[in-house]
């Protein structure tokens, strides 16, 4: 059970239950859709790029607690950042979920460190991030995490 | 009555711990575990008789050929085919369906024709027909499933409307891998025959679980996989009526299926060789026959009863799990030993990860039934599927785990 | 230098008597025997990790997926592919060729185009191209074999004439299963590339016998079977360059290869999944990777040298068997460890039956090379083919048996 | 070796070396061709049916000692017989090669009894017979013994 509580940390359960920035964003000027054909998880990311910063962002979709919480948390992290900063954030996040290593400046995304012992769930954790990155690239096609 | 606790001991794979708990394997709908006799038969073939078949006359090659053709004859007996030549070895159900959708359709399906399917088909008995229909300019029709949870199965009344003379082939699953429904296959075949349509039965989920008699069913083709019926991976069967097979063009071509080859043209052997190009999967075919012996040793009626009993017990035990939505037949209605369900508080993937920590193997996802799941408003379900080695205790452990999951997620 | 007598002990199948004599297995060109580690790996997979792949997240299913994808990565390393996604698991060489002849040709081969083959192709690398050409309205051309016994191999001068811009694909065997010739595959690929033709190498006879590096060879596709390289039956490989595979339409369709399915249309995953519909042959893929480990443990250069030495020794020992006609390279010319021959006094089938009584496994027939055999004026030959477990003593016993056969039939 | 000398009896070696009635028959009014795709053995049978008796018969082709000797011996047995008599002869022959049981009135065809211990060779022994039967049926298509 200890592995499970590592995986489903309070932060994750909370974002899963009470997702932030959920829903379509009427003012979005970028959108991308991601899905995981293996399990049917889906995630759309809507964002408004203002100059070179993400002014607003939201997500939509359905899926497991990991994918939904990760997308929700992602939106809170990404807002106000530049694409380059977001790339760096994702790199950091990807490192956490694949290695379990904590970043130096502990933040909410460290809650995802438990994912690394569940390799099959890594693609759940990265689904929303991939969609966001693709939205930034101005590539409106569906992203897959598989 | 077979001693199911004794039978369980024949499956060495089940004697292991997963995450510190004794394994409870409830994923036989995806693939079954193998009894020791099947593993022994694989080893024995490679140790004693391993050689290429058909084209050799040295001792090992003759023994390998006898074993391979013996497996074909055993398979014919297993499904009561009239003739061994009606048994084509393939990689599995998917390849068997592709063979018919490619070979039979290329010679017989024309613009304006219809292939009839059901909404509960597995992608492997659906996408190949989309492709064949597109090539021929034919169209697809679907027999709907009835009820918010598909609990009433196929809409048999709609069948009369759907089964028009344009229907050239009706392909349907014998037993659903998501709903736990067993379709009235003989009736479906009879009604199709009346309008002159051929039938293909996807027996992937039924073949190892209940008696399957192609003559009693009255089907024209029947497809199944070895790995879901206690046999090895990589081997499956297409049954086809001899007259149909012999009139069909080849599927794959190459060594073993030709009667003569010239630089610029070739002629084919009759079935079944016509459809078995290249070196076949000899060892796995031979071991599949051993799985058939093992299943018949238990008795397929007994297995069917065991499945039904465990299915009913699951329905009973799951009924008061909070927020559960179960697909397929309601409690009290007949069903197989397979139940898929959605929980209001936990997504299927979280359920499967959670159960896995308790040593319980479940499957979560769309179960290769995307279109039907979409119709039912679901992206995924969790599924528990039983077989000869499962017991009520396995189900008790699963249900206890599910209750913990619900508590964990709803409490958060 | 590997200790070949020690290696032989790894093959338990060889420790048996046939017709009262210790078995001498000289039919590896048809299929190889398996080392104990490969059999152990089959058993271990079923005992520990057996589950369906890809779609599951319980422990066994993750382990099975890791093992299967690990086998794919191992295969990529074995042939030095740039990317694991370039490895598609099939049933064997025949299916691999059929996949390209069906999928790639349907999208790329047009009326007036040419597929170039050689006269020494196995039916499995010939008939699929006849079918594809007929579908497309394309034509076939053949690089001739030179010499009354094809002893000079392919007519490389004719190549310039044959390799015109209409040639879209050149498919040829790396090592002939009848002539014992090894073709200059890298040169053939380079010359084809110059006229813009893709290349497919049939590596069925070479893959387990010499180093095969797809990047050094410069081929676009490469096909081989597991069962001829110490692996199990029922598994094989298609290598294809990623950009080509990703641009090709699916071959078989169904579960596992789709990205989304609707009642009336579907979308596909990228390669390699796109080409692996249905439950793959997981156990045999995993064991094939173990066969690769075993081969690399010996060293493929060492195996190539061993083959060449046994081939030369056969040529030497057979030279004065009365009335013998040997196909392929003359004594002193490089050749593989495979020799096929005809005896003036005894037909191939009588030779094989006779040798079998001496415990020696040979193959007799047209070796799936009918058109070339016809050109050489033969209906059949006898063939002895060596592998890692064969020794000079095996060849001595075969030659002694052949001398008795000649005496028996010429004396009559 | 004893099995081998049972298989390759003197009669068989003799017919193989000195086949009777070999070659095309210019006066034939029936012909059929048989082959065995597995090994490439081939056998054409030419015959002249006169009333309801086989007046002349020959064979042609290539193959192993068993198939050539059997075809040769077959021609000597069939000549002068009616189709019904030939059917009966074949039944007898087939029984011998599949069971090894000798017929009551020992004849040359009993030499083929040794074939039964080599089941892969039965189709060699019956190739010429099948071609002859097909020729009698007036069916000029290729017969296969596989
Ligand atoms: C040169 C060659 N190509 C293709 C094949 C076909 O291989 P498989 O029967 O394993 O598909 C063989 C062996 O039979 C072969 O020797
Ligand atoms: C109903 C049904 N049809 C077809 C298939 C496909 O079988 P396979 O993957 O063995 O080809 C399955 C299992 O995956 C199934 O459950």
Parts with pLDDT < 50 across at least 5 consecutive residues of chain B: none
First-residue to last-residue Cα separation of chain B: 46 Å
Q: Show the largest interface.
A: B-C, 90 and 90 residues
Shape of chain B: globular
Question: CATH topology of chain A, which one?
Answer: Sufe protein. Chain: A
End-to-end CA span of chain A? 28 Å
Number of helices of chain B: 14
Helices of chain A, by number, come to 5
The strands making up the biggest β-sheet of chain A line up spatially as: 3-2-1-4
Bound ligands: pyridoxal-5'-phosphate
The structural domain count of chain B equals 2
- Rg over C-alpha atoms of chain B, rounded to the nearest angstrom: 22 Å
Identify the CATH class of the largest domain in chain B. Alpha Beta
Mean pLDDT of chain A: 89
* Proportion of residues in helical segments of chain B: 25-40%
Give an account of the 3D structure.
The complex is a heterotetramer, with 2 copies of chain A (146 residues) and 2 copies of chain B (412 residues). With 146 residues, chain A is α+β, with helices and mostly antiparallel strands. Chain A has a single domain (3-141), classed as Sufe protein. Chain: A, CATH 3.90.1010. Chain A contains 5 helices and 4 strands. Chain A has helices spanning 2-7, 10-17, 65-78, 83-99, 122-136; strands at residues 30-36, 41-50, 53-62, 142-144. Chain A has a 4-stranded mixed sheet with strand order 3-2-1-4, covered by helices on one side. In chain A, strand 1 (30-36) and strand 2 form a beta hairpin. The longest helix of chain A is centred in the middle third of the chain and has 17 residues, at 83-99. The model of chain A has no long low-confidence stretch (mean pLDDT 89). In chain B, helix 2 packs antiparallel against helix 10, helix 3 crosses helix 10 and helix 4 (93-108) runs parallel beside helix 5 (127-136). Chain B has helices at residues 4-8, 36-49, 59-78, 93-108, 127-136, 156-162, 185-194, 214-217, 242-247, 282-298, 300-318, 348-357, 370-375, 392-411, and strands spanning 17-18, 21-22, 24-25, 87-90, 114-118, 139-143, 167-173, 198-202, 221-225, 236-240, 258-261, 266-268, 324-326, 338-343, 360-361, 363-365, 381-385. Chain B has 14 helices and 17 strands. The longest helix of chain B has 20 residues, at 59-78. Chain B is globular. A 7-stranded mixed sheet of chain B has the order 4-10-9-8-7-5-6, sandwiched between helices. In chain B, strands 13-14-17-16 form a 4-stranded antiparallel sheet, covered by helices on one side. Chain B has 2 domains: 40-296, 3-Layer(aba) Sandwich (Aspartate Aminotransferase, domain 2); 299-410, Aspartate Aminotransferase, domain 1, CATH 3.90.1150.10. Chain B is α/β, with parallel strands linked by helices and 412 residues long. Chains in contact: A-B, A-C, B-C, B-D, C-D. The complex binds pyridoxal-5'-phosphate (PLP) (2 copies). One pyridoxal-5'-phosphate (PLP) sits between chains C (92-94, 122, 124-125, 173, 177, 202, 204-205, 225) and B (255, 278-279). One pyridoxal-5'-phosphate sits between chains C (92-94, 122, 124-125, 173, 177, 202, 204-205, 225) and B (255, 278-279).
